[in-house]
Design goal:
The complex is a heterotrimer of chains A (323), B (358) and C (342).
Chain A: H1 3-10, H2 12-44, H3 75-107, H4 113-127, H5 131-145, E1 153-156, E2 159-162, E3 165-168, E4 176-178, E5 181-183, E6 186-188, H6 190-216, H7 220-228, H8 233-263, H9 275-286, H10 289-322
Helix pairs in contact in A: 3-6, 3-9, 4-6, 5-6, 6-8, 7-8, 8-10, 9-10
Chain B: H1 2-19, H2 22-48, H3 56-62, H4 70-81, H5 90-107, H6 113-132, H7 149-174, H8 179-194, H9 197-211, H10 220-246, H11 249-257, H12 262-292, H13 304-313, H14 322-357
Helix pairs in contact in B: 4-13, 5-6, 7-8, 7-10, 8-10, 9-10, 10-12, 11-12, 12-14, 13-14
Chain C: H1 3-22, H2 28-35, E1 38-43, E2 51-52, E3 58-59, H3 61-74, E4 80-85, H4 90-95, E5 101-102, H5 110-115, E6 118-120, E7 125-127, E8 129-134, E9 149-153, H6 158-168, E10 174-178, H7 181-189, E11 195-199, H8 200-210, E12 217-219, E13 227-229, E14 232-234, H9 238-257, H10 273-279, H11 286-289, H12 295-303, H13 306-313
Classes of the chains: A alpha+beta (323), B mainly alpha (358), C alpha/beta (342).
Chain lengths: 323, 358, 342
């Protein structure tokens, strides 16, 4: 009687297969149950569901956008504007954080005690305070310290910096003073600036550690060899040390870039209309929490996968070159 | 003459790292000048012109010129303990003290792993019991009312305590020989790591109650804590996987040759080495988690940041002094993170010694 | 996975599968009585409507409504469980049954009433959206704010009104949307935006308490929208809906009849049948609602009539000093009108 079962027990692979099948079945049943349950709940409570709302007019305007956006346009376009805004700030912050991180990482290895101490202090302070607090502090500082739009700073011809943001020549247009502040040309708002500063300042502290570890991983002999060849320390760093360190730095740096993109979701705290901000407003106006949140998650997931793919490609190319 | 000369050289040698080469000297000069420009303003605002009296009128006169630390003096019970019943504030204070003392003792290196774990779980239970009440004549306080520092500590320690075992399981699952289990774990890890924590909190706070029938969802705290555990576990899983990969394959073979079962091998040979290798990254993930806890304020849980909002935004007298409040809780977070990273460094050193022993 | 793991798993599945049976088992009133408290969703802090003082006590117009409900239903105004909710979370909290009543300065609109699984009960405050600008601003009317940057707090009807208004004028504005109240205020007062917009009820207090120099700011005369605020309840429970609605009406009716916190007990012997009915010494008005005779008496004794609630939290008795305006009784030129309690 018990023989088939004993046989089954002995057969590790078929047993494993059955277990897996069971797990998969249970997982599917769980998902089905949740979906079914939620649908029923929403229906009995008279709550609208579905993605049809995406094609209705949004009815709110967005302060800054890459695309032209008007309140009469549908929700999906508002979400698109949000995605583009998120991308814009994330990309700018990644570039800035990389530059800053490289400088900080290199500085924390110099002989200048003051400079080294300052870099270490920067890393320790900026890594250990929640980003949300940093963003708010940056924003309040910018809002407090910048001059008003009538008395905008004009460091370069055509470039204005004021409480209304940073205006610069763009697309053949030069900004000039208008009725309410500066008009014309390209412009970024103080919200964008605060977010950019906060994200890149925070990201740079992490990147600095990665850079430091990367450079330290290059054997001392390499530096000496570069010096023996008559290279200046800077040349040695650029031509000998960094290319070797880069290979070790790329995987953790990718992670940091991803984190930075995800951290841009805190934009709503300082009034920048990123994807989360748009989703929040839409959620409030339509009451369709499930739909808005799933769009949000899908977009971030997509961005993460894209970034991972891009750095993976770069990493492979770098490895090929190295050999 | 000679002695003066040598003294000068000695002083010069001290300054050489600062002034050696023109780039170096320039950097030093720039730092000093910036410090001279910035520091007096900060000093004037935060100390010279600051007011420590909890007096809203005097503070309003100072707005913009000096700090009003009086707002902390006036509001600290609300900021630190949130909406916890006012006359019971000694309970969260004691609970936090208990938990922090246990964490310190466990982290100080005076205890071995098992007693330390026992102490920590005991302290966590005591912490929960004190907050919740119900025995010894303590009135029960609903978890909806917990807030401020105890909530931050609970979410952070509870999140870490839950996420570590789950993360280890996920990491093992991702290296499993069963393809379905492997891909499920990988899918989960990549899914969670691909989305911001805010969206996971949204799901826990907004969507989960809709999935469940009336009131079955319970208090927001018990929905958000599992969300934090699930979120942190995905990150920890990758850290642990890195540790597992660093363990040479020969270790497993050797254990098998000694007749250890697969479980014994994992428990006594592979995992200790893997966790040791992953330790710095683990501590970093914990620090990240501790800071990320500040995000639960977006789903109406009033930990430190949220409690600050609660304390100030409804009170027209004190609303204007947010910056001081932010600085105050920023300091608390900073101290917490610093303690954690110190602990990590000490643990690393200790493990290095102990691995040299054997 | 070992046997214990499987057991856990199947137990979890069983629990999940059985939970639908437990849904909607009790009506809100039964649940409230059983748990001995009313779960009330309030705002995280809006001066005059709801807020915590330094001792952790709640006060405000919105919170007093909840106290009144607790007094009427449970006989004790203290039996309220407060849930401070942000604007994103308020509707889900109500939908999911985390709160029994949402009394959180929420505007009654068609979309909310028809598609979000809730019902607004009555209006406790007639508000409208106004604007504040710096005194030296070029704008003396809202119409002149075209193309201006305007600071707004997100998650409210304010954003949409702003847009509707300027679209009707054929103009555009640039909203700067903040999630938090304090960030939006800080931005405006530091000069980031040319105007600040929110409900008129908040504008005055913001100017007086928040501005570095209150005299430097003016509130523009136009009010661009109707913002009727009131408590909302979950759909599908008519009994509870009626209780909350009639509690608000009873408080308004009490003001009209001259019943106050102080004289409520003595007026029970009043010869006026309307007063008797409301205070439970005449016809039993509570029975029809599923409550007892003295439901309204207890609420009035706990929080006072509508006028007293207003004066205490928003009017002359508060630091906000708002005039009654539209919120005066209909007999005094306002809009507060309760259907007859009979």
């Amino acid at each position: 009687m018990r023989r088939p079962f004993a046989e089954f027990r002995r057969h590790a692979s078929s047993r494993a297969f059955c277990y897996q099948l069971l797990v998969a079945g249970l997982a599917l049943a769980l998902v089905w149950l949740l979906v079914e349950q939620t649908g029923a709940e929403l229906r009995t409570r008279g709550i609208r569901s579905g993605f049809a709302f995406l094609f209705e007019p949004a009815g709110f305007s967005i302060g800054e956008s890459v695309l032209d956006f008007d309140a009469a346009q549908p929700y999906w376009r508002a979400f698109l504007v949000g995605v583009l805004n998120t991308l814009r700030v994330a990309l700018a912050a990644i570039v800035l954080a990389t530059v800053l991180g490289l400088c900080l990482g290199a500085c924390s290895l110099t002989r200048n005690v003051l400079l080294r101490g300052l870099c270490r202090a920067y890393v320790e302070v900026f890594r250990n305070i929640p980003l949300l607090l940093q963003l708010l502090t940056w924003y309040f500082l910018l809002a407090e310290k910048l001059p008003s739009a009538d008395a905008a700073l004009n460091p370069l011809p055509g470039v204005f910096l004021s409480k209304s943001g940073l205006a610069f020549p763009w697309g053949g247009e030069v900004p000039a003073a208008g009725d309410f502040g500066i008009a014309g040309g390209g412009a970024v708002t103080p919200e964008f600036l605060a977010l950019l500063l906060g994200l890149s300042g925070y990201g740079a502290a992490y990147l600095a550690e990665i850079v430091r570890a990367g450079i330290l991983s290059v054997p001392r002999g390499q530096v000496d060899a570069a010096a023996a060849l008559g290279m200046t320390p800077l040349q040695g760093l650029r031509a000998v040390v960094l290319p070797q360190a880069l290979r070790l730095m790329i995987p953790p740096a990718t992670n940091q870039f991803l984190n930075l993109t995800k951290n841009s979701s805190l934009a709503v705290a300082v009034g920048y209309p990123d994807l989360v901000s748009i989703a929040n407003t839409s959620l409030n106006q339509t009451g369709q929490a499930a739909e808005c949140i799933s769009i949000l998650m899908a977009v971030y997931l997509g961005l993460s996968l894209l970034t991972a793919a891009a750095t993976g490609w770069y990493n492979r190319r770098q490895l090929r070159r190295g050999h | 003459m000679a002695s003066r000369r040598s003294a000068l050289t000695a002083i010069g040698r001290q300054f050489r790292p600062l002034l050696d080469g023109w780039g170096n000297a320039l950097a030093t000069l720039a730092i000093l000048v910036t410090a001279c420009v910035l520091l007096p303003g900060v000093f004037e605002w935060s100390i010279l012109r600051a007011d420590w009296q909890p007096d809203a009128e005097r503070c309003r006169a100072l707005l913009g010129t000096g700090a009003c630390w009086g707002v902390i003096v006036e509001k600290y019970p609300l900021i630190l303990f949130g909406r916890y019943p006012f006359d019971q504030h000694w309970r969260p204070a004691l609970a936090c003290g208990l938990l922090l003392a246990a964490l310190w003792l466990a982290g100080s290196g005076r205890l071995r792993v098992r007693p330390a774990l026992a102490l920590l779980s005991g302290a966590l239970l005591g912490f929960l019991a004190l907050l919740h009440g119900g025995g010894f004549g303590l009135p029960i306080v609903d978890s909806q009312l917990w807030g401020g520092l105890p909530l931050t500590l609970l979410l952070a320690t509870g999140g870490m305590a839950g996420a570590l075992p789950l993360g280890i399981l996920l990491a093992l699952g991702r290296r499993s020989r069963l393809p379905l289990l492997r891909s499920c774990c990988a899918f989960y890890i990549e899914l969670v790591r691909g989305v911001p924590m805010i969206s996971v909190l949204f799901v826990a706070a907004f969507l989960f109650p809709l999935f469940l029938p009336d009131r079955a969802g319970g208090s927001a705290l018990w929905r958000v804590l599992p969300a934090i555990v699930g979120f942190a576990a995905a990150y920890l899983a990758e850290v642990v996987r890195g540790g597992l990969q660093s363990v040479p394959a020969g270790q497993g073979d050797a254990a098998a040759a000694l007749g250890l079962s697969r479980w014994q091998c994992l428990r006594h040979v592979i995992l200790p080495q893997a966790l040791r290798a992953a330790l710095p990254a683990l501590v970093n993930t914990f620090i990240g988690l501790f800071k990320d806890v500040s995000l639960v304020t977006v789903v109406s849980l009033y930990e430190l940041t949220g409690a600050l909002t609660l304390a100030l935004s409804g009170d027209a007298q004190w609303r204007a002094f947010y910056l001081e409040g932010y600085l105050f809780i920023g300091l608390i977070y900073w101290l917490g993170c610093l303690a954690l990273s110190n602990f990590g460094r000490r643990l690393e050193r200790r493990l290095q010694y102990s691995s040299r022993d054997c | 996975m070992n046997i214990a793991g499987w057991k856990c798993c199947s137990a979890l599945i069983a629990v999940l599968a059985l939970t639908p049976l437990a849904a909607h088992a009790g009506k809100t009133l039964d649940l409230v009585r059983q748990q001995g408290r009313v779960a009330c969703g309030v705002s995280t802090g809006l001066a005059g409507f709801s807020g915590v003082d330094s001792k952790g006590n709640w006060s405000g117009l919105d919170t007093d409504i909840c106290r009144g409900i607790a007094a009427a239903v449970l006989g004790d105004p203290g039996k309220v469980k407060w849930l401070p909710l942000n604007s994103q979370q308020r509707f889900t909290a109500l939908q999911a049954g985390e709160v029994d009543v949402l009394s959180r300065n929420t505007t009654w609109t068609l979309t909310r009433d028809a598609s979000m699984g809730l019902h607004f009960t009555a209006i406790t405050y007639y508000d409208g959206q106004g604007f504040m600008v710096p005194k030296q601003s070029k704008a003396s009317s809202v119409k002149q704010l075209r193309n201006a940057e305007i600071c707004v707090q997100s998650g409210t009807t304010t954003e949409k009104n702003l847009n509707d208004y300027f679209r009707a004028q054929g103009a555009k504005v640039r909203p700067v949307v903040f999630e938090s109240f304090e960030a939006s205020l800080k931005a405006f007062f530091s000069g980031r935006c040319q105007a600040y917009t929110t409900d008129v009820s908040s504008l005055v207090s913001i100017r007086d308490k928040e501005a570095p120099k209150p005299g430097d700011y003016v509130i523009l005369p136009e009010v661009i929208s109707k913002e009727p605020l009131g408590p909302a309840v979950r759909r599908g429970d008519d009994e509870w809906f009626a209780i909350v609605k009639w509690l608000v009406f009873a408080l308004i009716e009490a003001e009209e009849l001259g019943i106050t916190q102080a004289n409520a007990d003595s007026l029970r012997s009043s010869p006026n049948p309307a007063v008797q009915r409301l205070l439970g010494s005449g016809d039993d008005s509570g029975r029809l609602l599923g409550l007892d005779r003295e439901w309204a008496l207890r609420a009035i004794k706990a929080v006072g009539n509508y006028g007293e609630i207003f004066e205490r939290n928003l009017g002359s008795g508060s630091s906000l000093k708002l005039p009654r305006g539209s919120n005066a009784l209909w007999t005094k030129g306002g809009l507060m009108y309760a259907p007859p309690v009979r």
